[in-house]
Structure formats: C-alpha cells, structure tokens
Amino acid sequence: MASRKTPILLLDGGLGTTLADQHGCVFDASTPLWSSSLLLKSPETLLKCQSDFAAAGADIILTDTYQASFKGFASEGSSSLEQSKEYMRSAVQIAGQAFEKAGKGKGKVALSLGAYGATMIPGQEYSGKYDEERLSVEGLRKWHQERIEVFSQDANCWDQIHIVAFETLPMLPEVIAVREVMEGVGKPFWIACVFPGEGTELPDGSAIKDIVKAMLGGPGSNRPMGIGMNCTKIGKLDALISEFEITIKEMVTAGEVTEWPALVLYPDGTNGEVYNTTTQEWEVKDPNGRSDAPWDERIFDIVSKVEQRGLWSSIIVGGCCKTTPNDIGKLRKRIDQHW
C-alpha cells in the first residue's frame, strides 16, 4: 500500500438535488431558500439526508445554508429577523448531529455560504449578473458581513463550525469581498469558484491568474486555508487545476506565497445534464458530453494525479449537484483502498 503524501478529506455531496431526488422535496420559485426551506418545514428530513452522507464516509458536512438569506426566510414564513437567525443557526447543529445519527461520532462542520447570486430569483451564481448594489466589492462585502455575523455573533454556534466555505463565487469582486469579511475572524475558510462556461475563466470574464492572486495574495490574516472550484463539470477540472497550479508556482517563486493551500474540489455529479435556472429543470444539452465511466472513478483519477504531484497541503474532495450518498460512499472506498 502506497504511503500517503497529501492528506485527503472527503466532503459530502449534492444536498439539494439529493433531497429532491431521494426524499421527494420540491424546490421551485415558491421556495427561494431552496433546500434551506427544510430548516423551517422539515428539519428531520434534512437530518436524515445529511446523516446518509455521513454514513457514506464524509469527513466534512456542509451546513444547509447555501441559499440562506433574511429575505428568503421572510418570504417563506419566518416572522422576524431574530427567528430567521435561529433557523440559520439550527443548520449548524443539524450538520453536527448528522455524524452522531450515522454512528460516526464527531465530524467536521463547514458553514456553507453561497454567492450572493444564489439568493436571487432566478439564481445568478452561474452568471454573476447581480443587481447594481451588489456589483462592487463594498456592496458584496456588506452583504456577506451581515450574513456571517448571524453565526459569528453566537458563541455556541460559532464554536461548532470548523471551517467556513464560500461557494460558487462567479466574480472577482466577490472573491475580494469575502477575504475582507474574513479579516481578523480567526476561523479557517475556503473559497470555491464556479466555472460554468466552455473556457477557464469566471462568468465575469476574470482569468484564473487574477482569481488565484485575489484568493491568496497580499498580507493579513484573511488568507484562505483552501481554494478551488465547485458546481463545475468534472471534465473541466484537469485544465482548471493546472492553471491554478501554474499561478501558485509563480507566486511562490515571487515570494508572494510561502505555503501551498488545500485544493478544494467538489464538481457536479452530472453526466451531460445542465441546470436551467429559468425552467429550474436539468436538461441534457450535449449528449456527446456523457461519459461511460462512473463519477467516483473520474474524480478519483483526478485526485490521484493531484496527489502524485505533491504540491497542495491537502485535498478536500466531494461532490456538488446530483452527487448522492452512494457516489460519496464509492469514492470513500476508492480512497481508503488506495491510501
């Protein structure tokens, strides 16, 4: 058995899609909170779904707060700002309970904080087409600050969070904004961007070189422990990772970075399907883009190549939309057998 050079942690999978496909949950325009609506309506269903991911072998469970917003909770029946905060904080407790329900003891809880566009109707995290107030670094910083304070200002809740996960960021100003928000917070965090187009740039047109420099550059206590990508087609990962690595190598050579961060990877579990934010349906856009290889095999091969290069401090890998507990369980088995 080969000795492991790079620590690997397994993340969970696609919460919203698993709730819809396996638990009969319906998410549409009447549920702007998407899966976070279960915090109000059916926390026991949410716990069951997340415990399935824990039982499958996930080391880290993301909280059900990706689309959480005050506006969303108000529109779904929350009676006050304070009640909305309590609903959001309850997601942290449920994620922790998932490990216990699965008989796994204590696991790591990552606070899921989606892009501002994830709270828009229809969602704009794949486009970055935000309203005017949220196009600037300052406007985005203010919005993210207000949301993270829901958790950071409650000491008991904050103590239960091991990592803060900024997810599906589609634009450079939002990367800069979340780093500013985390200045002096004292909690490990990662930044994962989304790459939905055919190229390797962000939806706002930003090049990977600029993205990585924004993620890791500059002084201060707000440098993320991990960077990477989520909600992106698995077939794009090799090219994206390569460009990430080229930029970090350049930063190391220039003395801008002294230690490599963790690589965070949780691509979609789709096989040719693309989510239409207007119809809110999964559609097969390119039948030729389908693969005969299972998802767990494809992502494992990518992780193996990354691990063999030995650059990153660790690898955090899991799945996004359409990845199921079964997928995560198969990936767990591959990782355990190899390492």
From TrEMBL:
Q: Which PANTHER family match?
A: HOMOCYSTEINE S-METHYLTRANSFERASE 1-RELATED, SLR1189 PROTEIN
Biological process terms from the Gene Ontology for this record are: methylation
Q: Which UniProt keywords apply?
A: Metal-binding, Methyltransferase, Transferase, Zinc
Name the coenzymes or cofactors required.
Answer: Zn(2+)
**Entries under InterPro entries matching the protein:** HCY_dom, HCY_dom_sf
| Residue ranges occupied by any Hcy-binding domain in the UniProt entry | 1-335
| Residues passing through the membrane, by range | none
Protein source organism: Coleophoma cylindrospora
- Enumerate the GO terms in the molecular function aspect: metal ion binding; methyltransferase activity
Q: Where does Zn(2+) bind?
A: C231, C320, C321
Tell me the protein's name: Hcy-binding domain-containing protein
Query: What Pfam families does this protein's entry cite?
Result: S-methyl_trans
